[in-house]
Inverse folding.
């Protein structure tokens, strides 16, 4: 029996009839799964390794069988497989959406393979056009330096950089000559780029497309050639870029890498859009433990299962047990969501921080309603109907020093409306765009309140809205 199988057996024993809302049970589960994040997985066979990875992917190209063969061939040659993950520093923040393929990279590392984390300091100047309706704003060297300064620290909870490489693609891209670039471009069929729906849409709508964007994927593919990658990881939106990496490796007389894409995780607002900073529906990897815990507790119930699948070390068998217990009514959705929140906090900040965040959340939200809280400030809707939410928060309530501070709270998912009746609470996440809306417009979007009390939560501060 493998070390992972032994861990799964222990967790399944805990899950068998235990009270999932009990602190003791949660502490047992978190202790086991936290240990799993550093568990040596090298005793898994190549086929078992490929199967473990495949369970969390959208695409595995050419196939899981080829991945297993690559792993086996590398082992026979006495070397680890080279696993590549790249990111362009177009923003200073890394969030849980980025973490999905990074967690897979972590598993490869624990299987004994060599992870190469590539920062696209050169490709960031072009801008990845994937899914874009217009060209990305140009970044200066100063922008890139500022954005990438904290990347390694942000992903350290998942990747052990004492056993991984952190490299910048300027290391090789700055040395490419024009004849080399033209030589590769001459062998890449234009059809590979024209099959991209995002390109076709932009051209059809007259938004234009630069030549630099057109060759972005070819330039990015040089990263795979430079490190002779065996495997590359990326979100499903990177599929066509990663297929170009295989093509350019083939042109360079290298064995094409195995391409693995992972799902784009849905944002915390549950609207179906992917997690992104621009939508304000993200959880940053540097967010404080209490904030991470609270943001995950605010997600709609339907996101709990996919978040468990993509953001934790839980296996499919373990998640099936949880799902069955929810269907049978022997587990409460809130208890499972609290397990999820604890898992993510433990991954980012450690077990002690997860326990403290759980206790803080219980003390603040679970043991009393807002209606029991004394001396809350009150906003009368009819008196402030046409005030923007930002003005209300920063001027009337003095909950934030400025409008920009209100927007930052919204970006961090700290802006919420809470309907409370008979001890039941329903939370509506407010986006950054809500800051410019009037209070009456925001309240009207909630529909009929049916006698429920309405509260505005700004970070840790709360006010009652008298409707």
């Amino acid at each position: 029996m493998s070390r992972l199988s032994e861990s799964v057996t222990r967790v399944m024993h805990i899950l068998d009839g235990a009270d999932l809302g009990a602190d003791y049970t949660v502490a047992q589960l978190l202790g086991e799964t936290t240990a799993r994040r550093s568990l040596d997985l090298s005793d898994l066979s190549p086929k078992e390794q490929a199967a473990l990875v495949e369970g969390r992917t959208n695409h595995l190209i050419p196939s899981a069988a080829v991945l297993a063969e690559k792993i086996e061939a590398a082992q026979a040659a006495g070397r680890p497989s080279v696993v590549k993950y790249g990111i362009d520093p177009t923003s200073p923040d890394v969030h849980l959406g980025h973490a999905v393929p990074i967690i897979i990279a972590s598993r490869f590392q624990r299987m004994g393979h060599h992870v190469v984390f590539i920062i696209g300091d050169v490709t960031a100047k072009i801008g990845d056009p994937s899914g874009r309706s217009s060209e990305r704003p140009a970044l200066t060297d100063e922008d890139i330096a500022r954005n990438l300064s904290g990347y390694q620290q942000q992903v350290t909870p998942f990747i052990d950089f004492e056993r991984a490489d952190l490299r910048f693609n300027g290391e090789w891209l700055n040395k490419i000559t024009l004849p080399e670039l033209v030589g590769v471009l001459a062998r890449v069929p234009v059809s590979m780029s024209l099959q991209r729906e995002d390109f076709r849409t932009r051209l059809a709508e007259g938004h234009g497309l630069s030549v630099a964007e057109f060759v972005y994927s070819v330039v990015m593919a040089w990263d795979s050639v430079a490190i002779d990658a065996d495997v590359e990881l990326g979100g499903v939106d990177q599929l066509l870029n990663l297929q170009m990496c295989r093509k350019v490796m083939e042109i360079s007389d290298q064995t094409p890498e195995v391409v693995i894409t992972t799902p784009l995780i849905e944002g915390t607002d549950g609207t179906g859009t992917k997690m992104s900073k621009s939508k304000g529906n993200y959880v940053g990897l540097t967010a404080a433990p209490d904030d991470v815990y609270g943001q995950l507790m605010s997600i709609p119930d339907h996101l709990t299962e996919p978040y468990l699948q993509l953001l934790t070390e839980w296996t499919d068998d373990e998640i099936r047990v949880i799902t069955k217990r929810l269907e049978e009514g022997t587990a409460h959705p809130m208890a499972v969501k609290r397990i999820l929140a604890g898992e993510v906090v433990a991954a980012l900040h450690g077990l002690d921080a997860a326990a403290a965040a759980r206790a803080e959340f219980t003390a603040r939200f679970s043991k009393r309603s807002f209606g029991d809280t004394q001396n809350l400030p009150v906003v009368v809707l009819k008196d402030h109907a046409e005030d923007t939410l930002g003005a209300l928060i920063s001027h009337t309530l003095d909950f934030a020093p400025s409008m920009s501070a209100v927007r930052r709270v919204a970006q961090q998912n700290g802006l919420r409306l809470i309907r409370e009746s008979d001890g039941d609470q329903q939370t509506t996440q407010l986006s950054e765009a809500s800051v410019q809306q009037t209070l009456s417009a925001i309240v009207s979007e909630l529909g009929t309140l049916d006698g429920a009390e309405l509260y505005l939560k700004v970070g840790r501060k709360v006010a009652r809205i008298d409707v």
In short: Residues 219 and 260 are 19 Å apart (CA to CA). The chain has a mean pLDDT of 89.
